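quick one
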Amino acid sequence: MKVYNTLTRTKEEFRPIDSETVTVYSCGPTVYSYAHIGNMRTYVFMDILRRVLKLNGYKLRHVMNITDVGHLTSDADEGEDKMEKAAKSQSKTPWEIAEYYTGVFFSDLKRLNIETPEITPKATDHIEEMIEFVKGLCDKGYGYETSDGIYYDISRFKRYGRLSRMNLEDQIAGASERVDVNNEKRHPADFALWKKAPKEHIMQWPSPWGMGYPGWHIECSAMSRKYLGDRFDIHTGGVDHIPIHHENEIAQSEALTGHKTVNYWMHGEFLLVDNGKMSKSLGNTYTISDLAEKGYSPLAYRYFCLNGNYRNKLNFTWDAMDAAQVSLDRLYETLGKHKAEDDSLPEGLADEWKKEFTDAVSDDLNVPLGLGILWKALRYPQKSREIYEFALFTDEVLGLSMEENAGKDNKNNECGGSDVPPEVYDLIEERTNAKKNKDYKTADEIRDKLKAMGITLIDTKEGVKIVREQNVRK
Ligand code: AMP
Ligand code: ZN
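structure w/ zinc ion:
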């Protein structure tokens, strides 16, 4: 198995510390609001990694933290505490806020067939471990106290910036540009290990430095150490974590232990919406529930994610979501046909496909290639139960609930179902491609052709809705 290591910027042969059980840490959600589809893309990537490791015969010890405390609105220790802000605006306690959004997050994982990691520790249950960690860093001369907290002195850590390949000068420049520079810090890019709490701060704990709360980065260093030890195999997160959060985690963990703690750093690229950033002000921070309300099945969103390599940006549009739903419905429908057929395939063909699929996904999680191999098998000129069984083999990684849905109509999408002629799916795909290539004439012709077949495509503010004529929605 090969994985791309952000630390070395190369694809490397994966060699675990223990030949049986792979140790993985994934940065989990900050539970002060709903996770959006961008966040969920990163967890789909984490899930694919788990499943590919298992396909390669490994067991897993996988930790994903739940950040239920002290994550400020800026990565750099400034601004408001997001948990407290949400609590105030909803007239709840931060604990109630965390509990509610944690529940929704786990239910979203389930809807997307994302396996829950073996260990999912909450930050608030590990304050003691974090305090011990900070004390250790202070004892070694990496932590120092100011009037508002304990800070990490990055000039003491010579390897600072190695993951993001940013030198110290860049870090200083970046930190100096931010408004709230704390002038007691020795260095503008020093970061908080522990914050002293003003009276009105709701979440606070006793510590050797008085009442306070932990910095965000210390959480992951303390919990990964507790559950995975001083050396573990893989650390995952989104690419936005590379320059600050993960750089800081490395600085903390390596300073305390005196050695490298993580062998492979893997990062998922961002999801864009209409080629731009998601933001509350644009109203495009969609959630899985938003998609479901519009009639898409959550697994169609998973399918959409699987179409892109985790290391490339992926652009979400309603057209692309329509295409993913159509493809998933067609997949289920085709599976049903193969399942019903006893014919056997030429000797060894299914094994050959299995090997091709395993090689593809084991090559730094090349799932789009794996999906291509699945479709090649499904389109084989002969129908056969062996093809259905091969598909179930791929589903161990793809996680699309193929067994449960083979041959079923997808109730979430009026366009699905076995009574829809297969050429409809081809036409919809062709239209999506034509629009992508700005060939609007062809796109319109296809729309008319579909209309004549009883399939209406409705352009809405959010994009195109595909509906059967008798089911047209308002
Ligand atoms: P947060 O709860 O903000 O810490 O984010 C949870 C995870 O989602 C982190 O691993 C982020 O890197 C990741 N993430 C945030 N925004 C996006 C996005 N637009 N696309 C993909 N991943 C994202
Ligand atoms: Zn983290």
